[in-house]
Write the structure tokens for this entry.
Amino acid sequence: MDLQKAFVKRRSIRKFKDRPISEEDLEYIVRAASLAPTARNIQPWEFVIVKDKESLKTLAGLTMPNGALIKGAAACLAVFCKDTKYYLEDGCAATTSGLLAATGRGIGSCWIAGDKKDYAEVVRGFLNVPSGYKLVSLIALGIPDEAPHPIKRPVKEIIHREKF
Ligand SMILES: Cc1cc2nc3c(=O)[nH]c(=O)nc-3n(C[C@H](O)[C@H](O)[C@H](O)COP(=O)(O)O)c2cc1C
């Protein structure tokens, strides 16, 4: 899939088919995420892939109501960053690249809030991630079983030329 198509096609998918995703696809998504830009090229991230059904259920429970959909996902990719100055920007850039890479392979995804959430530390503990790392996002992944079309603001409305 070309890049432009992936940008247009990517949507938050919250319903997945009961089908697995290959290890190769998951590694491809992590690789894409890890190629995102980072402040001073620190690359503060670590990625935890969760595929175990019981663990997915637990993650869904820990992140209710935000992450309830994780229960029906084939996998969940937890994006953590070392607590550096720009950890949030870095982690968000990686998350976006991961979402687009998944779209490119026909895999549905949904960004679930991590940073700022009360459950962030609980999720870190559950996944055995050392303290000092911040949960930036959880990415639910699976074969899409829906095709949502959220309304997007028209480009003409959001572009300002030279000055606001
Ligand atoms: C920072 C951030 C946090 C989000 N958190 C959640 C979440 O906790 N649960 C969820 O279902 N979707 C979450 N989303 C997905 C948004 O709801 C979604 O991107 C938005 O509705 C636009 O739809 P689209 O992704 O299909 O364009 C989050 C997105 C972002 C960028």
Residues 87-104 form the longest helix (18 residues). The chain has a mean pLDDT of 97.
